[in-house]
Specification:
By secondary structure, the protein is an alpha/beta fold. It has helices at residues 40-58, 74-83, 87-104, 120-132, 192-196, 212-224, 238-253, 284-289, 294-302, 314-336, 343-360, 365-385, 390-407, 418-436, 440-452; strands at 4-8, 13-17, 24-29, 62-67, 136-138, 144-146, 184-189, 208-210, 228-234, 258-264, 267-269, 272-273, 310-312, 455-460, 463-468. The structure holds one RNA strand.
Length: 470
RNA sequence: GGCGCCGUGGCCAAGUGGUAAGGCGGCAGACUGCAAAUCUGCUAUUCGUCAGUUCGAUUCUGACCGGCGCCUCCA
């Protein structure tokens, strides 16, 4: 088997990857801020991470994935304050919804989903270390800031040294107590609103709450150690979020925070970034409303490489819908097959090799899908030929299962509905009789009745198959 | 203004210094009573434009055009 390669934002190059301990891939994937339900743009990133996770398993490694839930931040606090409730009352239903949506999209469970509010002691300890090491200071406003000027190499992930601050940009900070405009908050002094909504904790610097970046550093190191294998997130997190995580973590430990940094590109709507502030967001609920299955959405997401922008369009979604229909039909056909030509075994072996190679090449899912389709077309042709080779069918089944263990793109079966099934069987029997009597007008009328209820039928050499299509 | 990504057939999309995977759609054929499904063939002499390097460039370099993103709390 060839090596597994991943693009590393830190080096801006595709590099060979293997877990540091040779067995378990320790990865941290930046999770949602649980203020409002995550949108499809967020889920594109989570789907990219799901792909990574599944390919890691395909390569024979174990995973230890941590995905944080940011349950304390400005928006949550102001939302809670306006509603007159605690932050927990705002976040709890959103967390629940997140897991439901995630399950719908078949995003596998991470091993750990830590919440920021459950890890305040770890965060306080981290800030204390940074203050002790002279990298952070308590300002007059009671907040603690990280002094980026004190850390050698700050900006290495986003290549800050090669950047210039926008002319006329907001260099004048809202916070005059900072020593340097670009210093960022580790610990924010509590305001009345924070106390009121349960978003304030004790610390050596007084009541307050953690800054955004702090939770990720503290929780990542708590569960994954000082140096993890892979840290993932959306491309917009490179700066400042991940840059600041590196500063805090490496400033505290002196060890590299993550060996690989991997970032997924955006999902666009109407040509621009999908974002709440732009107001062009779509959610899992919208997918369901439009009849887009989880399989189809996964197919859609995987049809473009994760480091390329992807535009959400009805046409592309339609194509994916039709694509997974074909993949699902093929899976069912393979399941029902009793034999095939021996050539199918070779075809399967070639496909499996190609798919593993594509996925190992920086998660090239679009190429993997291409190979999957070639496999399906060639295998269908062999199946059309008939044949008695059971081992060949078994090999094809195994190959398909292995490929699908990563992509997971078979549309869900329409649930068993005994009443509907009995009705269809009855109609089919009548149609069979009509066809035997060569009364095709009657047969076609019966087919029309069946199709009117969203059932498609296929006449084959071994009888008629039917399935629910909507 | 700085930094970065992208531009491949009607739509989506992979890809390589040696002459364009795959999917959707469309057209034709096989199969079928007719369909559906499946299979077969066809659907880019060409990869934003213009130069350059090279025996040869879609693939490397430069310029330009077009789209998108980041530049302090957005996946």
């Amino acid at each position: 088997m060839t090596t597994f390669r991943l693009y590393n934002t830190l080096t801006r190059a595709v590099e060979e990857f293997a877990p540091a301990d040779g067995e378990t891939v320790r990865m941290y994937t930046c999770g949602p801020t649980v203020y409002k339900p995550a949108h499809l743009g967020n889920f594109r990133t989570f789907l990219f991470e799901d792909l990574l996770r599944r390919v890691v398993v395909l390569r024979g490694w174990q995973t230890l994935q941590v995905m944080n839930l940011t349950d304390v931040d400005d928006k949550i606090i102001s939302g809670a304050s306006e509603a007159g409730v605690t932050i927990g009352e705002i976040t709890a239903p959103v967390v629940k919804k997140f897991h439901e949506d995630r399950a719908f999209l078949r995003i596998q469970d991470a091993e750990i989903y830590p919440s920021a509010t459950d890890h305040i002691p770890e965060m306080v300890a981290l800030v204390k270390t940074l203050v002790d090491r002279g990298l952070a200071y308590r300002a007059e406003d009671g907040s603690v800031y990280f002094a980026i000027g004190k850390l050698h190499g700050y900006g290495k992930l986003s290549r800050l040294d090669t950047r210039e601050v926008k002319t006329g940009a907001r260099v004048i900070q809202d916070d005059y107590s900072k020593e340097n405009a670009q210093d960022f908050a580790l610990w924010k002094a509590a305001k009345e609103e924070d106390e009121k909504t349960g978003a304030a904790w004790d610390s050596p610097w007084g009541r307050g709450r953690p800054g955004w970046h702090l939770e990720c550093s503290a929780m990542a190191m708590r569960y994954l150690g000082e140096t993890m294998d892979i840290h993932c997130g959306g491309i917009d997190l490179i700066f400042p979020h991940h840059e600041d995580e590196i500063a805090q973590s490496e400033g505290a430990t002196g060890a590299p925070f993550a060996r690989f940094w991997c970032h997924g590109e955006f999902l666009l709507t109407d040509g621009s970034k999908m974002a709440k502030r732009i107001g062009n967001v779509a959610t899992v609920a919208d997918l369901k409303e439009q009849g887009v299955s989880a399989a189809a959405f996964r197919h859609f997401v995987f049809s473009t490489h994760y480091r390329k922008q992807l535009n959400l369009s009805g046409e592309a979604l339609e194509a994916s819908l039709e694509g997974v229909r074909r993949i699902g039909d093929f899976a069912a056909r393979l399941e029902a097959a009793r034999g095939a030509t021996p050539a199918l075994e070779t075809i399967a072996a070639e496909a499996e090799k190609e798919v593993v190679e594509a996925l190992s090449d920086d998660l090239n899912a679009p190429a993997a899908l291409g190979s999957l389709y070639t496999f399906i077309r060639r295998a269908n042709a062999e199946l059309d030929r008939g044949g008695q080779d059971r081992a060949a069918v078994e090999a094809a089944r195994k190959t398909f299962a292995r490929i699908n263990s990563v992509l997971d793109v078979i549309p869900e079966e329409a649930g068993p509905d005994p009443e509907l099934a009995a009705w269809v069987e009855e109609k089919l029997a009548a149609r069979r009789a009509a066809r035997a009597a060569r009364d095709f007008a009657r047969a076609d009328a019966l087919r029309g009745e069946i199709e009117a209820r969203g059932i498609s039928i296929e006449d084959g050499p071994h009888g008629t198959r039917w399935k629910k299509i909507r």
